Structure formats: C-alpha cells, structure tokens
Amino acid sequence: MAVLPSLVLRGRSTRSPAARRLPSPEPAGLNSVVDCAVYVDGSRLPGRWTHGEAVAEVRRRGAGFVWIGLHEPTEDDIKGVAETFELHELAVEDAVHAHQRPKLERYDDTLFMVLKTVRYVTEPAGQAGEVVEGGEMMVFLGRDFVVTVRHGSHSGLAGMRRALEADPEHLASGPAVVLHAIADQVVDSYLAVGAVMESAIDEMETKVFAPKTTVDAEQIYLLKREVMELRRAVKPLGTPLRRLADGYTPLVPEEVRSYFRNVEDHLTKVSEQVAGFDELLTTLVDAALAKITLRQSSDMRKITSWAAIISVPTMIAGIYGMNFDYMPELHFQYSYPVVLLVILTSCLTLYRTFRRNGWL
After folding, report:
1. Signal peptide position in this chain (predicted)?
2. What CATH number matches the domain at 17-291, 3.20.20.80, 3.10.20.30, 3.40.309.10, 3.30.460.20?
3. How many whole angstroms separate alpha carbon 120 and alpha carbon 101?
4. Could you report the average pLDDT of every consecutive run of 10 residues in the chain (360 residues)?
5. What is the pTM assigned to this prediction?
6. Dist CA 232 CA 224 (whole Å)
7. CATH 1.20.58 fits 296-356, yes or no
C-alpha cells in the first residue's frame, strides 16, 4: 500500500519555508507503510513524510513524536524503519513473522507489545457455524515515536487515528496515548465478540433443552473452539496491561496510566465472561450427550417391547408348525379361532403392560 496523504491539518505550522514543501514519498521497498505522521503538541503537521524525515523533524524540534503504521511488512519493508528507530532485532523478527502470544517486553529505551485481535465472522454459505478470525497488533513505543505493525485484514487503525487527531489535548501527552488507544480498541473488540458469542451460546442452550430437538455435539464443539480462540487472546494480556498501569516504564506518564487501569478492568470483565462461556459449553456438551443417550435408550425399549409382542405369535406358530401326529387340539373344530384369540389376548396384554410402564 502506498503512503496515505495527511488526513487533517491541525494548527498553524511553525516549520521553516524549506520544511513546508511536501517531502518525497517513502523509499522503494516500504510498500507496507499505511501512514506516517508527525505530531507536535497533539496536532498533526501537514505534509507527507518518510520515516527518516519524520524522526529528523521531531528531534530537530525537540518536541512531538512520530507515528508510523505498517501492515504485514516483510523483512525488507521493516529494515529501514528498524534502523532509523533502533529497534531490537528480536522484536523486529517477531513483528515480521507474527504468531506471537500477547506480551510486553522492554529493550533498552523501547517497549514492544503484542496484542491479539479478533473478529466474529460468519462462514461462507454451505458451511455450518461461525468462527473467530484472529490477527495480531505489534507496537514499538519509544520516547518520541510509536511504530504499529498490523497483521490481518481487520482491526484497522485509520478510524482510531482520526479520533485521536480530533483530540489534540489528549494526544499531546505523547506516544503512550497511542498505545493506550490501541489496547482500548482491541479490548473493545473482545467485548463485541463476547456479546455475539453470548447470543450464539444462549441460542444453542435453548436448542439443547428444547423437547423433541436433537443438537449435534459438533456444533457445540465449534462454539467451544471459538471460545478457546478468544481465550488465547484475552488471558495473557492481563499481565502486560497491569504492568503498564503500575508504572512499569517511564515511557508511560502518570496521567496515561489510569487509562490502562480502565482497559485492564474491561479485560477482566471479558476474561470472566470467557471463563463462564467455557463452563456453560462444557455443561451443554454433557447435556446434549445425555439427551442423545436417553433417546437411544428410549428407542431400544420400544424395539425390545415390540420384539416381545411379536415373539408370542411367532412362538405359537413355531410350535404348531412342527407337524407332529399327536399334537393336542389338532382335530378340534374351533382350534384355529381359539389360537388366534390366545395370540391376540397375549399381544394386547403385553402392549398394555409396556404402555403403562412407559416403554411404548
């Protein structure tokens, strides 16, 4: 993706005439750059910037910070950014290859944070169930810069960037505000996914306990798999947020730490909700299997009852079909109707007995 032009012009620029010209586009190879901006006193400076020009401008002024956003960069894409901001090679490797668990690490004067992003999506037509689509967000936080690396087709930051630019007073607190806004947006997405999953689980619970309705256990396992996907994103994030709220690093000023405490509270709510989902789905699996077992047992009782009823005429017919010469009642005039009456009476008696005991 090419570098996007400046979205909003805020405040009067104090740059020199030479600096007011539009800088050249990003160097060849940085195709993953979504946006690169310079913020001074919470306001975005106009123009297009390369990462090198942006950090040079901030350090020349001695104020403000750079925010550069990348989407699924390759090693070549991120190499120049890593050299400019002196990012640690291990963190850069994690940012390129992704597939990391949520974590917070400190490399010298730079923080590296990984967050899992999720989205609840419906599968294409013809496939049953819904799935949680996952992605990742990596954030490099320094004294005068923040670099965001996004993996996945969802959880874009353009809307969040515009919202922050609309509040320059808050953005003036520094790049830690961007880290908080990202964490807040990610945790809000957990809440949204949790709400949709709660509705799906409630619907599944209604089906499981509805009379004369059979629910395939595979559908419940699909929901349980989605809960596990959300749990892998939510549970490990609690410790990083707590460390940021407790003053783990001077890169997060005191006035921003309280915001991280608020995000941690929301994450705790999601974590408890996910734990409840897991327990409820386990109960639903047991209930569905018990219902299937009960229905199979009922079917077996019916089969056994009818087999017992049919065995009466089968036994009598088998005895009289042996054709012995001296069998009783062979020459009695009313033998045939008597035998039919005995068969019918026996079958009706068995039928009423099984019916009264609930087998039929």
Report:
1. none
2. 3.30.460.20
3. 19
4. 33 36 43 87 90 90 92 89 91 88 91 90 53 87 93 85 92 92 93 88 84 76 86 91 90 90 92 90 83 76 82 79 70 75 84 79
5. 0.73
6. 12
7. yes
